[in-house]
């Protein structure tokens, strides 16, 4: 089939888990739901499953549409489908919404089973390790003992990396894209400013804004505007907006003067209408906490010693939030453990968001690597 083939109409599913989930923080989730979607067909020996781990504001709707009239397909639809780099004629692809999310999986806006009210501020903080544990339980639920591949970009790439540490025997290949082994101080700083914008919003109410029937929209809007700046490169912003004036002339006001301002406000407003503030706080905290080397005196090579998978690590030249140097740290640690590693540094102008874009070189790398993954008893 052609590269442009669509996965077609898809539908989300819900997996309910009654076995309590102990969390790294020491708290326990008594029960929980995970919302997920699948694309393609699981083969007879269940050797062709690929799990997609989403980034900060991602979710389970990775490919396809819910209706023919939908204007937008899933967030990685350019990558996944019949004949696309992650070919659903060969692979059974699983996308899920992480715990703590706001797209159907159990999170702060979900009803607490004991109180009958939204969890709100009582919902525990989660870590990448917690997400991976819950994802492994979803694989169990689907009867999958081993994944052909675990794939993720940004925060999703961190989850893919953690899979190879937590469940080394259950992953044959790991695709770690636009990721890092931990956050730099600058990245932690960006996350803290974003959280403070939300927490100091008068409508936040300590995280229990549901009871007040309000949303900390202003804080969430600013947090998204800040985040969006870090996802783009200076060149990409310059090429798209430059110093273009919205109305062609300066108005001498604090209203929108530049096209760049208009774009950021649009993105902030849109996000504030779709995303949950408590989820945003928890997702950014999970990013901050991720550091597999911490338990090994900062030795990433030692942290990755359990890994058994083959790896594809991809970075992008204009990504200043998770720079290529951070990916090379991962590559070095994997090579120190004599693992099979392919590394590509893709020339791209889009900044951190490049991992989401349809780029011919980037997609060719993914296609060629994924073609080599053996499934269904292939020699």
TrEMBL record:
Known pathway: Amino-acid biosynthesis; L-methionine biosynthesis via de novo pathway; O-succinyl-L-homoserine from L-homoserine: step 1/1
Enzyme type, top EC level: transferase
GO cellular component term, pick one: cytoplasm
EC number(s) recorded for this UniProt protein: 2.3.1.46
Binding-site positions, substrate: 224, 353
Protein location: Cytoplasm
InterPro entries membership: AB_hydrolase_1, AB_hydrolase_fold, HAT_MetX-like
Record flagged with keyword Magnesium: no
Reaction equations catalysed: L-homoserine + succinyl-CoA = O-succinyl-L-homoserine + CoA
Biological-process GO terms, alphabetical: homoserine metabolic process; methionine biosynthetic process
Keyword Protein transport: no
Swiss-Prot/TrEMBL keywords: Acyltransferase, Amino-acid biosynthesis, Cytoplasm, Methionine biosynthesis, Transferase
Site (Important for acyl-CoA specificity): 321
Ranges where the AB hydrolase-1 domain occurs: 48-355
Subunit structure: Homodimer.
Protein family membership: Belongs to the AB hydrolase superfamily. MetX family.
Protein role: Transfers a succinyl group from succinyl-CoA to L-homoserine, forming succinyl-L-homoserine.
Protein name: Homoserine O-succinyltransferase
